[in-house]
Structures are given as C-alpha cells and as structure tokens.
Amino acid sequence: MATARPSRPRSPHLFNGPMRLHYVWGPHMTVSILHRATGSAMATLGAVLLVWWLAAAAGGAESYARFLDLFTTDTGALNIVGWVLGVGMSWAFFQHMANGVRHLFMDVGANYELKRNKASAIATLVFAPLATIALCAYIVGGR
Amino acid sequence: MGTGTELGRVRGLGSAKEGAHHWWRQRVTAGTNLLLMLWFIVSVARLPAYAHADVTRWVASPWVAIPLVLLIVSVFTHFRLGLQVVIEDYQHDARRIAALILLNVFTIGAGATAIFAILRIALTGTPK
Predict the structure, then answer these.
(1) Domain annotation for chain A: domains and CATH numbers
(2) Range 20-59 of A in CB contact (< 8 A) with B
(3) pLDDT tens digit string along B110-122?
(4) Complex ipTM, two decimals?
(5) Which amino acids does the record list as binding heme (chain A) (predicted)?
(6) Which of B30, B56, B83 minimises the CB distance to A40?
(7) Which residues fall within 8 angstroms of residue A70, CB to CB, at 6 or more apart?
C-alpha cells in the first residue's frame, strides 16, 4: 500500500476563486448531494429511531411509553421533536426514493438527455414535499 | 511485477472477480426497499392508533412480522453499502479501516436488535 502519495491536482476542482464555482449549479447537482445527505441521515438517525421504536415496543408498555413521551405532548399529540423528526424523515425518504427511481432509469442507460434529466431532477424536488404533506395530512387529519 | 506506480503493481493480476458485486447488490436492495418501504409507510399510516397495544398487535401478525424482518435485512444491507461508499469517498488510510469496521458493527448490531425485537413481539405475544 502506498502511504506517501505525490501531491496531485484534486478532482473535482470546484472553485475558481472565493465562493466562485467553475460551473453553473443545476438541479441535477442539488438532487445528487441531497441523495447522499438524505441517505446518510436515514441510515444513521432514521435507523436508530426505527430500532428504538421496535425495541421499546418489544420491551413492554412502560418502555414504549417512555419512547412515545419524547415525541409527544401530554395530550398525545406530536411535540416539536416529533414533528421535526416525522416531517424530516418522511421528506428524506420520499426525496431519496424518487431520486433512487430516477437513478434506476439512468442505470439502464435512459434519461441522459439534458432536458429530460433536468426535468426529472426537478420532479423529484417537487414530489418529495408534496408526498410528505399528503402523508402527514393523512396520519394527522385523514382518519 | 512493478514496484513503482499503483497501476504497475496490479497489471497482469487479472480481474478481482467482484467488481460489479457491490453496485449490483445496491440496485437489487433498492428495488426490494421500494416495495417493502412503501408497504411499511402505508401500513403504519393506516394503523388506527399508536399506543403500545396497537403497535404490538400489528407487529405480532405474521403478515407484518415477516415483511418487517425482510425490510430490516433489505434496508440495512442497502444503507451499509451506501455508507461504505460515503466513507470511502471522505476517509483515507487507517481512519477508513476504522470507520468501515464501525459501520459493520453498527449495521449488524442495530439490525440484530431490530429483528430480535420483532421476533420477541411476534413469538412471545405482548409483553406485560
């Protein structure tokens, strides 16, 4: 294994000057970094919350009540932590899912045309908040 | 065998035989995640309430416990592969090795806890 690496130009070479990018920022770049950010957030925070929820339920009524208490008020409604995590994780899931499906099309060689690629990137950014609002509306008010 | 560049050291060794394995497993679990997570979200959203009894009664059904265990396996495999790429992009040398070991410990530890919790509810009934 080579430990001493020669100093080389770094790639991608992002900046042309202070806060001046070499290229024009586009929606495909936004969804790309969001894919990594939402995936990493769900893999760490989301996974811990899911495991905690299941383990608390398996531990019995008392441990489950302690879990619920962190995310709800005395009336049983979601508190601020519950809302932020609930909305945040739902949005992260829908954004990651929509862009993941977009990537599956690109994996088979489709959707590389500039306009359609850009349009599908924007579509994931529109879809994720709408799906999050629909899910929250259904859970909180729809039943 | 060359001792100079990295390319020189690997020339002539042949294929590692698993170049596309990581990529392919990420795609396969993406597909199974899509199905299982959509089922999970619809199923949880349709629960009448989220009290302890509601949740354990839901998990205890084989129609929930089995897909829920499969979801843990599929989702945790997918995120382990994904976080591996993130670590390989940003961490190097010894810190990369340490981060990858931590990732494996986290994934397997959290996954085992989740599956044990599901099986405990499903096989022993609602704990008192």
Answers:
(1) 27-141 (1.20.1300.10)
(2) 36, 39-40, 42-44, 47-48, 50-51, 54-55, 57-59
(3) 999 999 999 999 9
(4) 0.88
(5) 96
(6) B83
(7) A81, A82
